[in-house]
Write a structure and sequence with these properties.
Chain A is of the alpha/beta class and 253 residues long. Chain A is built from nine helices and twelve strands. In chain A, the strands form three sheets. Chain A has a six-stranded mixed β-sheet with strand order 8-9-10-3-11-12, sandwiched between helices. Chain A has a four-stranded antiparallel β-sheet with strand order 2-1-4-5, with helices on one face. With 217 residues, chain B is mainly alpha-helical. The chains are: A alpha/beta (253), B mainly alpha (217).
């Protein structure tokens, strides 16, 4: 029984169909990376899993629950805001542009969800947030505002903010794309650590080496469909799909 | 000079009451106006069209009408709708909707300048939209509008002088009454101007202090 099961998901923006029926399973403890050219639908797929986008067809099942929609009398309805929020809390998401709350300190960013969503007492939330900040190597930056942190540090705070909520599944959306090259390493090392501990992760990335080294499985998306997938080592060494061959050649791995 | 001091002593309570009423009305109308503006601004930014359009129409209407006309209208016209307000109440009403319309526009501007990705980030940790508003969007918007908000406060103090035309005994009307008794035009209007200046420079001081305190470093 996979933790995440995506079945025939379709999604259009106007007349432009971005997802054309995606099927994907992710098992508990598995790290799956999604690669592909810009516009292939990988970020949209991730946003659908976290219900930040609605999708037009198919279903997404997380831990045995169909999320986002309910079918009543044969017609499909989007769930209400409160129920969506409850389901979103089961997944954690880290964004390309960090999206930290600029008016809150690093600690405040991590604590907000613990106090307001998980209704944890302040002291307990404080302790848990500090634990996560020290795990990403930032306990000495707890009182800093995001504007006082480097890009790499901000992204690690964002990782702590997502992980502290104890999500069943973590979604990472091109989390190193906005970073200076010398800051990429510190963020990727944090993710490697999480992978080793068995965190289930779905990673959209342009870092081919990272996908190859960390992900158990890699998915190649092309034109709104999964064009090829397989164990990372095998897929990178021996790609079958012509477009994937071309894509890897250009990515220069 | 001696005569001025004597007249000032005679008029002290009238002027003090006028000043107090001016400050009270200004504070009350900026309080009510800010609350009206919050709802208007949120509706204008995030409301669907059935919410947005009526608010838009009201806000544009109120902003397009001179404050003096608003004051006269709420004093004379509301009675036709069966609403009987005293001069102070109708003055307060007019200044509040005036302030509310302006604050609504200011708050809309501030909210729209916050990137949508902040909403995504709030949703991603499981916050519902009302909570995202309270804990993520409004705190950021408020820091931005603090200087403009203080400025609106000073504008309201000045606009409150217009209430003298409907017989609200605020500072200007009290001064006019005093001058009507002793004919010391220059002295008492000078004093009146000085008092308004002092109130507004105090508001400005407070604004600078608050601005520094709440600024995002």
């Amino acid at each position: 029984m996979p933790l995440l099961s995506i079945r025939g998901v379709t999604k259009s923006f106007g007349t432009n169909q971005i997802l054309k029926g995606v099927d994907l399973d992710v098992n508990k403890g598995e790290v799956v990376s999604i690669i592909g050219a810009s516009g292939s639908g990988k970020t949209t797929l991730l946003r659908c899993v976290n219900l930040l986008e609605d999708f037009d067809g198919g279903e997404i099942i997380l831990d045995d629950v169909a999320i986002g929609y309910v079918t009543r009398n044969g017609s499909r309805h989007r769930l209400g805001e409160r129920e969506l929020a409850r389901q979103r809390a089961m997944t954690g998401m880290v964004f390309q542009s960090f999206n930290l709350f600029p008016h809150l300190t690093a600690l405040g960013n991590v604590m907000l969800g613990l106090v307001k969503v998980r209704h944890m007492p302040k002291a307990e939330a404080h302790a848990l947030a500090m634990k996560w900040l020290s795990r990403v190597g930032l306990s000495d930056r707890a009182a800093h505002l995001p504007s006082q942190l480097s890009g790499g540090q901000q992204q690690r705070v964002a990782i702590a903010r997502a992980l502290a909520m104890d999500p069943k599944l973590v979604l990472l959306d091109e989390i190193t794309s906005a970073l200076d090259p010398e800051l990429v390493g510190e963020v990727l090392n944090t993710i490697k650590l999480l992978a080793k501990e068995g965190t289930t992760m779905l990673i959209v990335t342009h870092e081919m080496r990272f996908a190859r080294d960390v992900a158990h499985r890699t998915i190649f998306m092309d034109g709104g469909l999964i064009a090829e997938q397989g164990p990372s080592a095998k897929l990178f060494r021996n790609p079958k799909n012509a477009r994937l061959k071309e894509f890897l050649k250009r990515a220069n791995i | 000079m001696e005569q001025f001091l004597h007249e000032l002593w005679v008029a002290r309570w009238a002027l003090a009451q006028g000043l107090l009423l001016t400050v009270e009305i200004s504070l009350a109308s900026i309080f009510c106006g800010t609350i009206i503006g919050l709802f208007a601004g949120i509706g204008l930014t995030y409301g669907k069209w059935p919410v947005r359009w009526p608010i838009r129409a009201l806000v544009d209407c109120i902003r397009g009408i001179p404050v003096l006309v608003l004051i006269l209208a709420s004093f004379y016209l509301l009675t036709f709708a069966g609403i009987n307000l005293t001069a102070i109440e109708s003055g307060l009403f007019a200044l509040s909707i005036f302030c509310g319309a302006h604050m609504g526009e200011i708050i809309r501007g501030a909210l729209q300048s916050i990137p949508r990705t902040q909403i995504d980030a709030g949703r991603a940790i499981g916050l519902t939209f009302p909570r995202i508003l309270i804990y993520v969007l409004l705190p950021q918007a408020m820091r931005q509008i603090m200087p403009v908000w203080i400025n609106t406060g000073a504008e309201l103090v000045k606009a409150s002088t217009l209430l003298s035309v409907i017989g609200t005994g605020e500072l200007l009307l009290r001064t006019q009454e005093v001058v009507g008794r002793n004919f010391m035009t220059l002295e008492f209007y000078g004093l009146c101007g000085l008092l308004y200046f002092l109130v507004n420079s105090m508001i400005e001081r407070f604004g600078k202090f608050a601005g520094q305190r709440f600024a995002l470093q």
